[in-house]
Amino acid sequence: MKATDQYQGKHVLVLGLAKSGYAAARLLHQLGAEVTVNDGKPLAENPAAQELIEQGLDVICGEHPLTLLDKPIDLIVKNPGIPYSNPILEEAVKRNIPIITEVELAYHISDADIVAITGSNGKTTTTTLITKMLENSGRTPLVAGNIGVVACEVAEQASDDDVIVMELSSFQLMGTDTFQPKISVLLNIFDAHLDYHGSKQHYIDAKARIQANQEESDYLVYNVDDKEVVAIAETSSATKIGFSTRVLHPEGLDIAEGHLRYKQTPIIALEDVMLPGRHNLENILAAVGASILAGSSREQIQHVLKTFGGVQHRLQFVKKHKERAFYNDSKATNILATSKALDAFQQPVILLAGGLDRGNSFDALIPSLSGVKAVVAFGETKHKIAETAQSVDVPSIQVVDVLEAAVHAAYAQSEEGDIILLSPACASWDQFRTFEERGDAFIQAVSKIIN
Q1: Quick check: 8 pLDDT over 80?
Q2: 381 near 356, Cβ under 8 Å?
Q3: Total domain count, the chain
Q4: CA-based nearest residue to 398, from 365, 429, 354
Q5: Looking at the structure, do residues 155 and 267 belong to the same domain, yes or no?
Q6: Do both 116 and 206 map to the same domain?
Q7: 219-254 pLDDT per residue, tens
């Protein structure tokens, strides 16, 4: 951990616990700050708060009183999920009190270079690919941020022989000030989290924070096929490495003559890449670029791309049985994600879709249903999805109540060469607590068929 005295004696309010708040509070206390912790959960139900009290911190639980700002506060470290419409944060802005997330704190103490990844889609896949590509490179990759361990906990343990691979959301990036990764990766920008940010421009501005403090000695790996990303890149002072799946990009990463290329040098043949989907080619190109810049070898990159079948619940290859391939894309909780999953396959697809009914229609899914062989709809939205499939004459449409029945119905009508794909286009909360639980249930149902 890098020595720093910038928090010594500072009065810091940590707003919201969870993993990031707990880690930030503990670290700030260690760095000599006078820390007050505030969390909405009552103390009796809050073991993390109880532990911090035992460590000597001032903890206020059960409410968010504005009186917290009555005593001098030099800095607020907020949980990323707490919106800036929170009354304490609104008042803090009026009083010009700086507000950060623990990602900024992690940067201040990190001895290791940081590779930071953001985008509306593909962050976890790209982060995982980069991490695997950096293995055996002579530097130990440490995963942090949205996946892995809280960023400041990783930074506390990292040495200059390590490299921190950090997946970052717009919520986390919005709370950065001096954050300056050695390599930043900007994948894409779609409409997302507008309820939190208030407008698409505010969302774009938050994403742009990933490169805002970079200099020419740093690198920005960015998607030249995304106009919002390009607009951000045009303002960047970093050395820019673009990637494209659509056009030749000789100074960056592209696809030509059946190969993925870096600065016109072939890296791997497309036919040797295990991870399916055109959208994943963007993630792969971004990961290859960042990994090369961080010191990975071509041999390690090739090994990863030949063997990596996907992140769990994100177009994850599950099993092949009697020439039918099962894929778990439970993370596809919206129509855009399911459309991308369907576009990933050339083979006949039997789609399993359904879940929580949020009141929306599924008309936006229609263009991606043209090549679908069958739809098995389940959950609250089963009839809506079935009606959408009927409108484009999907050859076979079945409606069942639960996911396990959908798996059995899909397999019963499948043939050799078919893809059986769970990509729900809906949240899981009608029948499952999380999309991970739903994906696990799919895998279990597949195992019952095979065994």
Answers
A1: yes
A2: yes
A3: 3
A4: 354
A5: yes
A6: yes
A7: 999 999 999 999 999 999 999 999 999 999 999 999
Question: Which structural domain, as residue segments, surrounds residue 164?
Answer: 110-307
- Whether 58 is in a domain gets the answer yes
d(CA 184, CA 176): 14
148-154 contacts, C-beta under 8 A, 24 or more apart: 150/19, 150/20, 150/23, 150/24, 150/102, 151/20, 151/102, 151/103, 151/105, 151/106, 152/20, 152/23, 152/24, 152/27, 152/102, 152/103, 152/105, 152/106, 152/109, 153/23, 153/27, 154/106
Statement to judge: residues 77 and 179 lie in one domain: no
Residue with tokens 């030099």: 74
133 and 230 assigned to the same domain: yes
8, burial (CB in 10 Å: exposed 0-12, middle 13-18, buried 19+): exposed
Contact 59, 43 (CB under 8 A): yes
Q: Is residue 3 part of a domain?
A: no
Task: Report the alpha-carbon distance of residue 244 to residue 235 in Å, rounded.
Answer: 19
In one-letter notation, the amino acid at residue 140 is: T
Binding-site residue ranges for ATP: 119-125
**Quick one: which of 150, 144, 59, 68 has its CA closest to 102?**
150
Cβ–Cβ contacts within 10 Å for residue 3, how many? 7
213 shares its domain with 230: yes
Residues 332 and 425: beta-carbon distance below 8 Å: yes
Last residue of a domain, one of 100, 121, 151: 100
Q: pTM higher than 0.70 for the full model?
A: yes
| Short-list 200, 116, 198, 99, CA closest to 154 | 116
- Same structural domain for residues 302 and 183? yes
Residue closest to 4 by CA, chosen among 47, 42, 33, 43: 33
Q: What's the token pair of residue 147?
A: 């996946």
Question: Which residue numbers belong to the known binding site?
Answer: 119-125
Q: Does residue 194 register a pLDDT over 90?
A: no
